[in-house]
Amino acid sequence: MRQTFHAERGIIDPMPNPDVAPRPLTVAGLFAGIGGVERGLQAAGMQAKLLCEWWEPAQAVLKHHFPNTPIHGDIQTLQALPDVDIVTAGFPCTDLSQAGRTEGIHGKASGMVKHLFELLEDASPRWVVIENVRNMLSLDRGTAMEYLVSEFERLGFTWAYRLVDSRFTGVPQRRQRVIFVASRTEDPRTVLFADHAEERPESDYKEDAFGFYWTEGNTGLGWARDALPTLKGGSGLGIPSSPAVWVCGAAPGRSIVTPLIEDAEEMQGFPRGWTKPALEVTRPGVRWKLVGNAVTVGVSEWLGRRLQSPGDFDETGELILMKGMKWPTAAWGNVDQRWDVPAGLWPEQHEYRHLLDIMNPETAAPLSLRATTGFHTRLLKSRLRYSGEFSAALKEHSEYMQGLVAAG
């Protein structure tokens, strides 16, 4: 890929060379988790040369699925990056997410991203990719984003980011994540802003099942039509857990259920059973945290295709973004200037798999009596708006589960 540099805006535009076939790109995956980014990039034809992950259950998953890739146990002791094309860093969201501690970018967990910038001081990858939660755009008035872009600018990178919804890949999970791409030599807009699709209309979603988080109920529901709400590593109660699903019109005991962990894996784009190797070193419930912390595979596969073959972009609608302004859902910049980009959350639109096409309510576990009554009690005390039919279904389910308990 040849490039031309535009000095007036400090950007680099690609000029395709039809005589040179692109070679497979190589990857170093930091904060690799269970390999959601790396599996997607692998599907796009790339190869991981190094994975870095400290948590033993996640390491067990990586060792099983990436048996030929070296795994380093702690980014704090990683002395240097290998010579690779892409460095990925889905750093911990614990201090950034609404379900976490919200201590910010310099919290004990999320602050580990500083080691990425230390490693980049002496490394020259073609691309750097970061992924994290939507909340980092607004937490502490955007302090996390300001830190990230300022560090990249200090190191001479041009950067871009875009908020995307995993549903564009066809999975029934409403999951919005910030995808951040930076480079010293390339224009990241050719990766993030080359694709635009219409968001799927609400009428395309069925009304036979609604996902919600039973750990909420005071200030939110995590409500999702024909989908699960965002799978997450923790919850408002501080525990990794599955969401729940209201199956409309189902028989008592079958109307308020929880998906299987294999359902959740599939809704993240993994093969069913992907996290099973973690059972060698941990208890079953931890698999929910592993899946909740992961990047949706289809999102990283889309990203990988564009990293391998950047596209065109349209500058129409770009607005200057001044420091101190609210971070938009998409932007790019460098040390000289920052720009607001009118890019939607759906770069592509894949065929949608409906919620009940993946999970079977007949084999799903009913939500426990304690979980149901606790959630319903919080809901009734709240000022949240919700369907009367939903409340009635919760009450009926509680009574049914109470009957099972009474029957012994």
Explain what the structure shows:
- The protein has 408 residues and is of the alpha+beta class.
- The protein is built from 11 helices and 17 strands.
- The strands form 3 sheets. It has a 10-stranded mixed β-sheet, sandwiched between helices. Strands 11-10-12-13-17 form a 5-stranded antiparallel β-sheet.
- The chain is globular and about 65 Å long.
Give a short synopsis of this structure.
With 408 residues, the chain is α+β, with helices and mostly antiparallel strands.
> What would you call the structural class?
alpha+beta
Shape: globular
Major sheet: arrangement of strands = 5-4-3-6-7-9-8-15-16-14
The helix tally amounts to 11
Can you count the beta strands? 17
Helix content: 25-40%
Instruction: Profile the largest sheet.
Output: 10 strands, mixed
Mean pLDDT: 89
Low-confidence stretches: 1-14
**Radius of gyration over C-alpha positions, nearest whole angstrom:** 22 Å
Distance between termini? 69 Å
Beta-strand content bin: 15-25%
Topology:
Blueprint: E1 2-6, E2 11-15, E3 26-30, H1 36-43, E4 47-52, H2 56-65, E5 71-72, E6 86-89, H3 114-120, E7 127-133, H4 143-154, E8 158-165, E9 176-183, H5 189-192, E10 209-212, E11 224-225, E12 244-247, E13 256-258, H6 261-267, H7 286-292, H8 297-308, E14 319-320, E15 330-333, E16 338-340, H9 355-358, E17 365-366, H10 369-381, H11 388-406
